[in-house]
Specification:
- The chain is mainly alpha-helical and about 350 residues long.
- The chain folds into three domains: about 35 residues, no CATH class; about 130 residues, Serine Threonine Protein Phosphatase 5, Tetratricopeptide repeat (Alpha Horseshoe); about 70 residues, Orthogonal Bundle (Cytochrome Bc1 Complex, Chain D, domain 2), CATH 1.10.760.
- Helix 5 runs antiparallel to helix 6, helix 9 packs antiparallel against helix 10 and helix 10 runs antiparallel to helix 11.
- The protein is elongated, with a radius of gyration of 32 Å.
- The model has no long low-confidence stretch (mean pLDDT about 80).
Length: about 350
Amino acid sequence: MILSVVLLALVVLASLALVLEPLRASAPADPDAAERTRLEAEQDRLYGELATLEDEARRPDLERRAALTLRALDALPPAPRSGRRTRPMALAGAVLAALVTVAGALTFVPRWQLASLSAGEAQKVRNVLSLPELRRQAEAKRDQTAYLAWGKAAFGAEQYDQAVQAYGNALKLDARQPEALRRLGILLLTRPDQGGRSAKPEDAQQAFLLIRTAAQLAPNEAESQLLLGFALARFGQDKDALTALERYRTLDPQGRDADEMITALRARQNEDDPGLRVYAASCASCHGPEGAGGAVGPSLRASTLTRAGLQNVIVLGHGAMPAFPNLKPTELKALLDVLERWQKEGP
């Protein structure tokens, strides 16, 4: 924030210098006048485009070109001072100074402010700032692309009432649009009503149908699997929820949105299944959380050992595999039940 104030102050000071410049003494003609005029015209054009920009994808390129133009202007020798002390020139300087100040306030200063935020926070700010224009475009064009752009920005900005309105309009144009279906579904499922109450059973069921339909229409979109996993967990279908969330992590290896839910679901499974409790405590660190293999141990799901063979390896150890002779009979039986079940399910 302090940096932004300092930068804005510098812009204001530069503007004042431009205002006073026409009133100062003159010098010989400027040998760089043509190049300076061209660069200033390019600067004004770029600022104008930035001020009326609709396609945000072009903003980084325009800002880069504006910065290069400013750098080229700075590299020119100072212009000779003009000796004409006229009101029109002073007025022109004031207008140009105002343009520079406004452009600095509306473009460069907000960008530097965003640089101090995390990536997620900065994106949320951008979404909030873009909402009025996206809404205006959607209500003017009334096409699916515009409604989806508005809905996506509103969802990212946590302006959920606008997201519901935008996605609802998109579904009126195409009832099988996956993004609109799943996001309306998750909002209906998780948002409390005006009285602070959670979704009614019939609304929750409708929300689940929307999310499941979206996952069927777009099974390879990571968000479809993520929201399906959340919905399944909400309805207590832990096994299917884990499958969907693991699928999400396969589709988006960098995604971290499902980590807490996966941990909670596995813990819940371990509480209900004594074999999984034993496995989590003694085996998962080497063979992976689901027995599919880890950094050290091989996949137990792909194992062809008989129950007796599995028992011998567990109790006596084998190669790098340590022995676990102190397992209680009930614990050993429960663990073998889990391993045999995984063998049948396969890798």
